[in-house]
Amino acid sequence: MGTALITGATAGIGLEFAWQLAAEGNDLVLVARNEQRLAEVAAKISNYAGNEVEILPADLATEDGARAVGERCADRVRPIGLLVNNAGFGLGQPFASGDLDRELDGLDVMARAVLITCHYAAAEFTRRGYGAILNVSSMTALTAQGTYSAHKAWVRTFTEALAASCPTLSITATCPGLVHTEFHERSEVDAGQWPNWAFIPVDKVVSRSLDAVRRGRVLVTPSPLYRAASAALRLAPRSVVRAVAGPGRSGI
After folding, report:
1. pLDDT band (50, 70, 90) for residue 184
2. pTM over 0.90
3. Is 148 annotated as catalytic?
């Protein structure tokens, strides 16, 4: 067992990654902005599972925050075996009339921070000859649902390119669909507009994503429903995709 670093680790998919990785015997480094919440989560996991749980408060919307996480990934004294880039949020606003600063924060957290942390991690993991990176993308990467889709499309393509350039490492992008977490509440989007059958259990998303990392798979869509939806989106003309999965379908 080793040590996994997880961004966005205090809620939703990131929190489930923390619990499942701890249950497997891994030590953890948990990253989020809220230091108090990080400490509470770390104490719960450590008390229950007996693992060493380190906290790293960092704002990934800032370059300093992203570099701090990257530097922790590259630490040779306390090595990281798995980097999970999970941090992200729904914009919850139309692009043209929305707040520009929120758009820039989204770009920084979901694209720039992923690039920075992966740069540090890939360099160190390649040097020593082992390590894994799991970037959380989304099946919306194949849609046209505003800038969130664009960020997740970048993550997906970037992960594929990184995997091709670092063949000794396991580098994976997971592309889940709808999941019941705090995601929609935080972006002020009504999750009730979608039927319950469209949501994937968060434990399945995480367990299938981790299995893909172990198998060395580059892309995984952790649900039969969304694998079918993704196949349809890839085959459909983009004009159809924009009509059925464009900004008006994003829940804003």
Report:
1. very low
2. yes
3. yes
